[in-house]
Amino acid sequence: MKKIETIGIIGGGQLGLMIAEQARLLGVRTVCLDPAEDAPAAAVCDEHIVGRFDDPEAVEELCRRSDTVTYEFENVPGDILVPLCGKYDIPQGYKPLYDSQDRLREKRNAREHGLRTPRFAAVDDEASLRAAVAEIGLPAVLKTRTLGYDGHGQAVLRSEADLAKAAPLLGVPCILEEFVPFDYEASIVMVADRERVVSFPIGRNIHREGILDLCIVPAEPDADVLDRMRAQSERFMRSCGYEGILAIEYFVRDGEIYFNEMAPRPHNSGHYTIEGSTTNQFRELVRYLVRQPLEEPRLVAPTVMKNILGQDLETAQRVAAEQIENVYVHLYGKSESRPKRKMGHITFVGMDAETYARDWAARFVE
Ligand SMILES: Nc1ncnc2c1ncn2[C@@H]1O[C@H](COP(=O)(O)OP(=O)(O)O)[C@@H](O)[C@H]1O
Ligand SMILES: [Mg+2]
Q1: What 3-state DSSP class applies to 258?
Q2: 325: which of 33, 135, 168, 281 lies 20 to 30 Å off by Cα?
Q3: Buried (b) or exposed (e) across 226-244, using 16+ Cβ within 10 A?
Q4: Would residue 356 count as lying in a domain?
């Protein structure tokens, strides 16, 4: 087989940036495709193609300039990717994207492959919304089936009166889900090749206004739930026939594990692995892409990852200047800072949730 010297990345955001950083450490070149001249990954990638993800010519140009191609962006259209999968090396293929691009298909697929999900029903208009509410009950969560992220495109319906909140979403196909009053949220990141599946230590995710705020690892002291989550996730990945990287978000309630969603790309909750784990999600993805054997990750020490949104950027810059041991500040170099925009993250290695709450939480915007 041809030696893989250059990885093409569809997307040039912070995930692309961190893939490129790890590729560089392994001596691998990268080229990214992103419409923004100042895309974060462009600062590290060897080449940057300025182009859109839905422009077939631009995506094919990326394939031509690369020995293998991955994506850091979930909404690559199938009609563009599928024809290229036959012509170029895109080892993860389109299937995991296809299975995750529509929340209804995603949950059906999870169920078919043995995972428990919250109850759900398809909603296309007011009549099917009423029928779904009658079946599932309230509270429930209404979500657009496609293109939602960071809590965009969803509404929690708690009472009959809330059904009016649904109107703005109903212009596109939706899904209604049972509201799970979870004890906590957790996610797992896995990387698989033909031989093995490796998975990273599971983190507990705390969201604020629909955006990940903190990831705390390990997710809980009791190993039983985490062992089951890991085993079922690895079985699921194999059963679906996926290779490459896959992240799954779960809700945990009374020891029961509910599948929420998945993404076949590096995951925000896995950023802690750069310093908190013996190998990290970006590095193992690169090793998969260049056909090196995967390494089994181990947690270095309990770790907390804090996402830095626009409102906390200045604080993060100050923390970076303080150069504190075991505190790793990552800033993505985005040219425009806005509240709620992901600008960076800070990883605290050797820290638990209580210590973070006592010593650090007050430094960031509530
Ligand atoms: N069925 C549900 N029950 C309870 N909370 C939910 C449910 N679905 C979503 N949420 C909350 O909203 C957040 C975002 O929803 P998610 O489906 O993960 O969409 P996104 O693509 O925006 O991350 C979840 O992390 C969780 O906190
Ligand atoms: Mg989510």
Answers
A1: strand
A2: 281
A3: beebbebbbebbeebebbb
A4: yes
Both 271 and 350 in a single domain? yes
Q: Distance from the CA of 142 to the center of ligand 1, in angstroms?
A: 10
One-letter amino acid for residue 330 of the chain: H
Same domain assignment for residues 196 and 315: yes
Q: How far is the CA of 99 from the centre of ligand 1 (A)?
A: 18
Beta carbons within 10 angstroms of residue 266's beta carbon: 26
Identity of the residue numbered 100? S
What are the two backbone dihedrals, phi and then psi, of residue 155, each rounded to the nearest 5 degrees? -145, 135
pTM of the model: 0.98
156 within ligand 1 shell (Cβ under 6 A): no
According to DSSP H, which parts of the chain are helical? 14-25, 56-64, 78-87, 95-100, 103-112, 126-136, 223-240, 273-276, 281-289, 313-322, 353-359
86: its two tokens? 């036959």
- Express each pLDDT in 107-165 by its tens digit: 999 999 999 999 999 999 999 999 999 999 999 999 999 999 998 999 999 999 999 88
